Request: fold
Amino acid sequence: MQFSPATESLLSELDVLSGGTLGRRDDLGMLLDLGRAPARRQTLEELCFQSKFLHRAYGIMNRIGPNGEGYDRLASEFARSLDHAVALITGMLKDAPADARERFERTYLVMTHGGVESLLALCHDLAWYKNWLIDAGRTRAEST
Reply:
């Protein structure tokens, strides 16, 4: 997949920062490219915030199990955040090529077990972008 030079550079930095754990690099790159449009910057930032929460919450839920203290409340917040992330991705993809939109819909936006697993893998990668923004103290203007 062909990305802007700025996105390619950022993906390389994220590869290093994540220790080579990006599993959905191309799809992350597409969202980063789409998020460069001024109208979508805030949506990308919100998606990264939601992704970081989802990634961390999923890990906690797995660690404490369904009988753990606070699990039910966390599971409820997780479900709301998951729905919000799906809506944000859907909004970002409005101007994407039809084949990319369809692939995202089949891969990430279907609420099946496989779809949720794929979405969480993408959230993992988006969380690394959020970490990059936080760690470097970057502002929106600097990150685009």
About this structure: The chain has seven helices and no strands.
